[in-house]
Amino acid sequence: MESEDVLKHGENSNPNHMISDRSPINFQDTLPESVEVAIIGAGVIGISTAWFLAKEGLSVLVCEKGRVAGEQSSRNWGWVRQQGRDAAELPIMMDSIDTWETIAKEIGDEIGFTRHGVMYLARKESELAEFEKWLEIAKLHQLDSRLLSGNEVDNLITDKPDQWEGAMYTPSDGRAEPFTAVPAMARNLQGKGVLIRENCAVRALDIEGGRVAGIVTEHGLVKAQTVLCAGGAWSTVFMGNHDIKLPQLTVRATVARTEPSTDFYSGNAVGGGIAFRRRQDGGYTIAAGGINEHFISADSFRYLFKFLPVVKESARILRLRLGGDLIERLLPMRHWSADQISPFEKTRVLNPAPSKGGIEKMRRGLRKYLPLLAEIPFAEVWAGMIDVTPDVVPVMDEVAAYPGFYMATGFSGHGFGIGPGVGKVMANMVLGRQATYDLDRFRLSRFSDGTNMVPGPGL
Ligand SMILES: Cc1cc2nc3c(=O)[nH]c(=O)nc-3n(C[C@H](O)[C@H](O)[C@H](O)COP(=O)(O)OP(=O)(O)OC[C@H]3O[C@@H](n4cnc5c(N)ncnc54)[C@H](O)[C@@H]3O)c2cc1C
Asked: Which residue has a Cα nearest atom 14 of ligand 1?
């Protein structure tokens, strides 16, 4: 298939392709009058939190403005990665990967979870030396990460030997299938009594006496004792309407999947600017690792100062774009009332066009480093908008201004793998239990209390 013939995400409503606003609506539970916990957003974070709350017997409603996992949670690379994590995230991630395994045992094939390792490939000694620094963190947690020689890499990756100096490798890392994993969890949850509704935007919080008392959806009010915002790239918009400041910007990342190919490596790897991972359907998911495009918006200027450290660190991989809808982005709707159509109903599924430059970079990278895979046609290309915070780690916290209102957002390009672990953390937080991890790095107040923004290991 030539590049012009490749299916772009959203062009096909076949449920075996990427999820878009043309995909069928599968979750249409009737809205109740009240629930114990209402969750805004049915991505991996919202659904995983519902997973653990349902285990505790709580009544839970998940409202999704578009489709379950329609945004980042289906568009990602599918890496379930402990390697290279921020030190504060690693213990949660180590629990998360075990949780993926448990969920996969309960649900089956649709999760597509398997452990075949993650590899960061190095072309030069200096790159290996950089990777080696992170091994200190791995050692503290008895993680099985280690350095590989070039020969060891060639034993694992059989497409074109003799080109890598070595790699950092974590054999216990894994992958899951983003097209199907979160929707399968959602279906399983419905069987346990969790209510899930697609095409149901939450416009605003219902506030009584200064605390959260429910949510106002486009289909009416639902009372709730607690509310979790797991809105991904939209969280900052939702918070802004309630005057809660959440510095969060978005970057576009482009991805492709190939037709089935021979298995020349069963895990996930990145090197030479190209990322690849074996898929359950026998193809590979490919991305040009190291291109993130930010479309300038009013928030780019608003949060510029906070994002300076990460902009400096990622200058090499960040591209600024104007885009055709610049005026709209410069003049966004900031406030609305609960009886008005909100921005969430106007964009059911954020479905950015894939970047032509990104696709070209992938093809060049494949020809150079993986010539056998380069022969296999792309079956589909798509893009996703990644939500990024100034220190590239998420916010997991209760919002002090509104007791009973929690947020888990800003996973900065690595929230899929850690999703089930975060679900457990957030369920415990909502239940008022003592946290088992140090969550200080993830508090919301770090953006306003003078804390220095120290970016984590990156997107
Ligand atoms: C191209 C790409 C590659 C990536 N690769 C990886 C990877 O390999 N490994 C990894 O760990 N992570 C990866 N990530 C990151 C990961 O996908 C995200 O961090 C994770 O999916 C975030 O989950 P979420 O539930 O917070 O957000 P989302 O999946 O974006 O879900 C948020 C949901 O909330 C809904 N919503 C928002 N506002 C409202 C509202 N007001 N009312 C109702 N619904 C609302 C949205 O429609 C959306 O469906 C990647 C991301 C992208 C885009």
From this structure: 413
* 75 C-alpha to ligand 1 centroid (Å): 8
Of 171, 200, 233, which residue sits at a domain end?
A: 171
Instruction: Quote the tokens at residue 219.
Output: 């289909």
Do the domain assignments include residue 455?
no
368: in domain: yes
User: Which atom of ligand 1 is nearest to 417's Cα?
Assistant: 11
- The two beta strands, 34-40 and 60-63, are parallel
| Domain total of the chain | 2
Ligand 1 mean position, distance from CA 276 (Å): 20
- 231 and 101 co-located in one domain: yes
362/404 same-domain check: yes
Find the domain containing 154 and state its range.
118-171
| Ligand 1 atom showing the smallest separation from residue 277 Cα | 8
For the stretch 104-159, pLDDT in tens is 999 999 999 999 999 999 999 999 999 999 999 999 999 999 999 999 999 999 99
pLDDT in tens, 161-183: 999 999 999 999 999 999 999 99
From residue 301, give the alpha-carbon distance in Å to each of 232, 296, 394, 410: 20, 8, 21, 18
Query: What single-letter amino acid sits at 278?
Result: R
Same domain, 232 and 274: yes
Q: Report the distance separating Cα 248 and Cα 390, nearest Å.
A: 7
Tokens of 315: 């200058």
pTM recorded for the entire structure:
0.95
The two three-digit tokens of residue 368, written as one number: 């150079």
Within a domain: residue 457? no
Alpha-carbon distance 275 to 424, whole Å?
29
Q: pLDDT tens across 201-223, in order?
A: 999 999 999 999 999 999 999 99
Helix, strand, coil percentages in the chain from 3-state DSSP, rounded to 5? 30, 25, 45
Output the residue whose Cα is nearest ligand 1's atom 9.
79
Number of H helices, E strands in the chain: 14, 21
Ligand 1 pocket test target in 19, 67, 76, 380 with most atoms within 8 Å of CB = 76
Q: Show the ligand 1 pocket: residues with CB < 6 angstroms.
A: 40-46, 63-66, 70-73, 75-79, 201-202, 230-234, 238, 253, 255, 344, 384, 386, 409, 411, 413-417
- The residues facing 254 across adjacent strands are 383
Please say if the pLDDT value at position 292 is more than 90: no
